[in-house]
Amino acid sequence: MNGRLAISRFPKDDEFLDSSVDVTAVGVDVLADLVGIPPSRLVGDVPLTEEHAERVRQLTGITLDLEKYDYFLDPSSG
Q1: Comparing C-alpha atoms, which of 54, 50, 65 is closest to residue 10?
Q2: Per-position b or e across 24-55, b if 16+ CB within 10 A of its CB
Q3: Which of 34, 35, 57, 77 has the least CB density, counted as fewest CB within 10 Å?
Q4: Are 36 and 55 in contact (CB under 8 A)?
């Protein structure tokens, strides 16, 4: 996995992307460990849940508002 990593946010009542924040600088190994997926298998959107929320905030400064939005770790190739 050599591409960009982002946290993408979608309103719970909508299927359209609301925002996306580049978190590549945190590191693929750290983020893969956060979601429990080996870095080599980190493909496709990975849902972020309440169990990830505090660690995401510590690593990125992003507070997940899980009542209003669905969040995903979004690995992409560019």
Answers
A1: 65
A2: eeeebeebbebbebeeeebeeebebeeebbee
A3: 77
A4: no
